[in-house]
Design a protein that fits this description.
The structure holds two protein chains of two kinds. By secondary structure, chain A is mainly beta. Chain A has three helices and 18 strands. Chain B is an all-alpha fold. Chain B has one domain. In chain B, 45% of the residues lie in helices and 0% in strands. The chains are: A mainly beta, B mainly alpha. Chains A and B meet through strand 1, strand 2, strand 3, strand 4 and strand 5 of A and helix 1 and helix 2 of B.
Amino acid sequence: MRLQVKRDLARFVAVSGWLCLAAAPARALPSPDDETAGYLVHFFSDVNGVDVVSMFVDYGLATGPGLKASLEWSHDIVIIPAIDAPRGSAEAVDAITTASRPITDADQPYEDYIKTRNALQGSVAWKDVQSGYYVSSESDYFAQMLSLGWDRDLKGDNLNLAAGLSYGWDSIEPLADDGATAAPATRSTLHGSLVATRILDPRTTLRVGAEFDRVSGQQHDPYRSVNAGGAIVRERHPDERLRRDIFVRASRWLGNRSSLKADYRLYGDDWDVSSSTWGLRLAQYVTDDLVIAYRYRYYTQSAAWFYSDDYDLTDGIDGYRTGDYRLGDFGAHLFGGRITWTPSALTRRWNFLHDVQVVLGYERYFNSYNFTASIYETGVSVSF
Amino acid sequence: MSRRRALRSAAQAALAFMLLLVGAGCATVRPYEKEHLADPIMVSAADTGVQMREMKWLDAREGSTGGVGGAGGGCACK
């Protein structure tokens, strides 16, 4: 079953990619730089056997002076492996806690759990203002978001200020799980950001910013259980969370046709989770058409106030309990590489093509819970 | 003072310094001097798509990443 799904996915990915490539030259084209199109595939595979295939198709259009529009469609297929234990057994509960999946009927533990998600995001920008709408749908989750942004160049285009605001509202309708169905719920997110980018000298830029989020509504997983006070009970998180972060990024052009980007992010919220993230990216031209980029990221966070490895009471801590390791104290490393090939021979041959890029990337992620994952990326983008 | 708190204070001081640096009137770079800054491997906007896709899966692995709304997948994707 799983092998068959993977074969079908591979066929779908291959056919879609070739359709995208084949369709591009056939397009009736206006002036150069008016249109862009891209196709990307991500494949995520972790140590628990969870696979996620994500496909992204985007299209952008500049229809007049200062007016731009873009559309992106993404399609995710999530495959969570079979548990191979009877529904309701301790092994099944442990597996659910790890993999966070529902078991609707008695046969389902012995089958892979597969779910799909489709998302569409559109945005329109006119001069300094941008607005957008996002919608995503899956079997138990429906999300929508409206966004508004503004940015302006100042000081002779040496300083850029940008501000953004978005509001998202989600509808959660859990599937039947282990003979019970959790009640439908909602969640809303208000997000704001302020970013300043400054050119310091002909080789260096500096970007600093701050973000805040107010999340209201259900924030726990309706399928995940936790062992508390000797009983297996559903996890429960507070309904309100206030999150904020500040970040800085410095980009420096190096002498040998390479660039170095260093960034840092400091995060804190009212669940007492605080985190620091450091990142380094080095990009190097190998030839005029080929760029190789390396990156490293280190992440560390503290635990939420209601997180515990061992709850003494069924009620957890002040009525809240979690089986989510993401709310614990841990650190994570991510490293990887990415090759970007810009075949200039194609753009010379077909002069209606302004730019073609082919990307290939690999990243490895691991954290202090012995969780590891591999992330593969491949895709092509074309501008006309 | 704990090590974590000291680290956070140092980071906040560094960020405040950076903010001052951004707001202050550094030497103006003229358009003809921006050749390297406009190179694709320097432009931050080129990383935006990569970061958004990365945030999508990191959101499901870390407690403080993502979560800015519009990510969907609150249930079995995580």
